[in-house]
Amino acid sequence: MKIVLIGKNGQLGWEFQRILPGLGEMIALGRDELDVSDHASIQKTLIRLRPDLIINTSAYTEVDLAETQVELAMGINAIAPGVMAEAARQIQAVFIHYSTDYVFDGKNNRPYIENDPTHPLSVYGKSKLMGEENTKRSGDAYLILRTSWVYSLRGNSFVNKVLGWSRKNKTLKIVSDQVSSPTWARLLAETTTQALAACKENLLDEIRERRGIYHLTASGYTSRYEWARRILACDPNPTEQLVQTIEPVPSGEFPTPAQRPLFSALDCGKFFNEFGLRLPSWEESLQLAMANT
Ligand SMILES: NC(=O)c1ccc[n+]([C@@H]2O[C@H](COP(=O)([O-])OP(=O)(O)OC[C@H]3O[C@@H](n4cnc5c(N)ncnc54)[C@H](OP(=O)(O)O)[C@@H]3O)[C@@H](O)[C@H]2O)c1
After folding, report:
1. Ligand 1: which residue has its CA nearest to atom 32?
2. How far apart are CA 57 and CA 5, in angstroms?
3. Which atom of ligand 1 is the closest one to the Cα of 158?
4. What is the rounded distance in angstroms from the CA atom of residue 169 to the CA atom of residue 240?
5. How far is C-alpha 4 from the geometric centre of its chain's CA atoms?
6. Could you tell me which of 100, 196, 185, 193 has the C-alpha nearest to residue 141?
7. Are 131 and 77 in contact (CB under 8 A)?
8. Residue 156: pLDDT band by 50, 70, 90 thresholds?
9. Distance between Cα 79 and ligand 1 center (Å)
10. Which pLDDT tens digit goes with each residue over 93-130?
């Protein structure tokens, strides 16, 4: 099986680079090899490479900047996935794409299911929702996996930010009214790959039959405040921490250009019913991730 991975240097893309070679011949593309804001070159590259499987982990993920860089965010998050889905259909490849809990407005009082009404509050959320719609319109054998609060121990994730702040400050103020499921990029990549591996013999037909939107996050949910507390509790080098107090504060204390949903946990029952897989709890995942550093 020939696999094209798009967005190889992101949190999720990096984890896929580790695991996909076990599934087939991987061609991993970063921004330098394929700029996904250049839609003609997406089409040309995919038709030339003719993979059996396309995994798109590229995205414009600067939620606040997207409020002003609307055209760029739309080009990458809304239009590019539709172009990839269309190319996949032409070459009879499976297309895997990721979306976000930010397609919802966060006013639910229970985890969202896939066909709950969407109502994004931000340009980022709107652009990702349009990416879903364009994928559905152009795609054939595709999965759209909505996930939330993705982190890894590489780069500028919330986990590394909290660790960094804890070394410079005695008091941390962390938002306590935003609730969702922190999801370790490695487990997201592994679980997606496991689901695909189980269908490997007849991948195109199996995914075509099951095509659609699925929620896939760690089990359980929490606030950013509780997440930060747990990050510090799992810190492999606690003696480096200066922090003495972690204070819960409302989102209003840190006004941001983009509005975020307050409660955006996702119910992952549909993915479990269809593929027999679920991610561990966010607490177990975090412990595993941080023991790995
Ligand atoms: N992060 C979250 O909290 C979160 C939450 C819910 C859903 N998601 C979704 O999950 C997926 C993976 O997210 P992630 O956290 O892995 O994102 P990430 O770490 O921000 O990675 C995104 C990747 O996209 C690449 N990219 C951006 N613009 C590009 C362009 N014009 N051409 C080619 N590549 C481009 C970036 O390239 P460079 O490395 O060159 O910048 C980066 O490697 C995305 O679909 C995202 O929307 C993420």
Report:
1. 35
2. 7
3. 3
4. 11
5. 18
6. 196
7. yes
8. confident
9. 15
10. 999 999 999 999 999 989 999 999 999 999 999 999 99
pLDDT digits (tens, 9 = 90+) for 225-240: 999 999 999 999 999 9
Within its chain, how far is the Cα of 53 from the centroid? Answer: 18
Catalytic residues: 124
Which of 188, 194, 173, 79 has its CA nearest to residue 135? 79
Question: Which residue type sits at 199?
Answer: C
% of the chain surpassing 90 pLDDT? 98
Distance 239 CA to ligand 1 centre (A): 33
User: Tokens at residue 203, please?
Assistant: 């991948």
